[in-house]
Structure formats: structure tokens, C-alpha cells
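W.,

You were right to be curious about this one. When I first looked at the sequence I had no strong expectations either way, so I just let the prediction run and decided to look at it fresh. Below is the sequence, 371 residues in total, followed by the output.
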Amino acid sequence: MIAFSKHWRAMLAVNAAVMLGVVLHKLTLPPYIPYIHLLVDYHHGFIKRALIGAIVGLFTTKVPVWLVFALGGTVWLITFALFVQLFRRTFGLDRTTLPLFVFTAGSPFVFKNFLFTLGHFDVYGCLGAIILLLVPAGSLLFVLLAAFLSAVLVLIHHIHLLMYVPTITAIVVLRYCLPRTITTLDIATGAGLLAGLGALFLGAQFLGTMPLPEADFVTYLRSRMADPSRTELLQFAYVWYQPLAKEVQDTWARLPSNLLGVPVYALLLWLHLPLWSSFKSLIGALHEQRHRQIVIASLGVISLAYLVMFAMVFDYSRWISSWVVCMVLMLHAVKTLPAKPAVLVDGDDRKTTILGWIVTVIPRLGIIRPF
């Protein structure tokens, strides 16, 4: 038991060192699209991906580049702290659950990759879902909070409708719907909120294109830059003009090269085998067959949303990473349902320990292609 404890505690220390290395590396990379996200606002009307920039604009008229890392780092720290609190409440944080913590918080798919994608919007979806896993779920206010957070995510980036909103919806189903008798008011409210989110997504996707010529748009972005001479940071401004058909076309054009990463993704997922075994054990331990069926159906819907996203946008490494994050979040949601004790990660198993070390030393997955 002493040797077991030392192994997994050492993995935590190595994970911390790896995360620091990822941060230092990230600081050397130019934040192209994340920086533009801080510049775009609603000055010219309703625009997609403009909420964060609009909020930043309430506090400053000139946006420095370092704000990308400061804001992204702050959100990451808050998300990580809340995840630790969630894990402690759901599973407890001691010697027996430390291996599961390593395979989740220390995974190259999860917080390490959030560090590498610092400034991107992925972590906001994780943060919203964690909040919903922590707050009480006993009243309709919980459903309204879930809808509000989902709307905020769609305004941050409309792809969140596929990326994290299905997981948020599943959390509402598991935490709010299953433990109680659903009323007509619940059904009407849920249907209305889902319809509203759908309308918001369609508005952002098809009506949120920048209404002025791209050259004028770039000129406006430069007016908000603390250092307007760094025009290289605006080279991806065309994204705010790109229609869905062009995004799909680019994705399918890159598909042959992106598919070369599938064996790497499969290997990395296999390295997390103790995590998947724990998930299977938790589902199998549920008292009610109906609960198991709903959980499996929810996982299927979440995965289907990611398949649709894979066909639309080519940032495959980010999408597979966020899919794993959603599975980790669902792991916590499933644990809240009535069940008998389940077998979690066995930290005394030699194979599990080896896999834990491999997962620990892998720094991150990436954005488009593996590593």
C-alpha cells in the first residue's frame, strides 16, 4: 500500500511539471484566433463568436495580447479548482481514488490539452458542465441555469451546441429528471428552452456573419489592438465570413490527412482503459435498468453530436479531447444515481500503474492533428 501510494502521488507531481511545461511552451506561440475572439464584439450588430470580446470591451478599449493568456489561464484555474472539488465530492480524494483522478485530471485529453488550447473556447463548456454537477438540482431553477449556461456557450461559439450542450442536457436528465416525477410544466419548459437554444444556434450560424467588408473589419479590429502593428495576428479574420458550406468543404478536403491520426487517437484511448472499465462498472452497478438505458442513450447522443462536428470542422484533436472530457463529466453524473458499490481503478494493479505513468508523461494531444 505504501508503494502504491508513492507511485500515484509521484504521478501527481510529474503531471504538475508537465502542465507547467505545456504552459511555458504555449506562451511562445502566437494566439491567432484566440486574440481575435477578444477583439470581436457587437459593435456592428449581432455577430457570431463575439460574446467574450464584448465582455472584454466593457473593461478596456485596447486589448493587449497577454490578455489571451491571462484570461485563458484564469478560466483554466477556476475550472481545475472546481473539478477537484467535484471529484472530491463525487468519489472522495484519497489513496483509493487517486488513480482515477490521475486518469481524468491528468489525462492528456483533459486539463493538459486545455492548457495547450489556452484562449480557445473549449474549456468554457467544461466549466459550465462542472457548475451544473456541483449546484443543487432539486428545482426548475436548475433547468433554467442549464439553459442560461448553454446560451452563453452558444454565444461564445455556436459549435458548443454540438460540443457541450448535449452533455449539459444529459446532466439535466440524470440529475433533475430521473430522481423525480416529470410534470407537464417540466416538459413544456424543457421543450421551450431547447427550441430557444436551437433558434439561437441557427441565428449565430446563418445570421451572425460580419456585415461589413473584410478590409473594414480588419481595420476595426486594429482599432481595438493595444499594438496595431501586429497585423499577423489578424490573418484568420476571414473565419467570421466563412459560410458553413466552406467549412464542410475544407474539412472533407483535409479528411485523408486527418484520418492518419486515428491510430494515435485509438492508442491514447486504449491507454485510458482503466478509466473506461470504471465507467462500465459504474453503469453496470446502477440499481434500475431504466437508468442504465438512459445513460447509454445519453452517451450515444453525445457521441453522435461529435460525429456531426467531425464532419463539419477539422480541429480533430480538440474534438476528440473534448469528447473525452464529456465522458469524464458523465462519469460524475452517473455516480449521482442510485447504485451498488462499483469497482474503480485498481491502483495496485501493475498494468494499471504502467498505463498511469504513460498517461502522466504525455503532455497534450493538440488542436488539429495529434501532438
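Here's what jumped out at me. The chain has a mean pLDDT of 94. And, maybe more interesting for your project: The CA atoms of residues 259 and 316 lie 9 Å apart.

Coffee later to discuss?

I.
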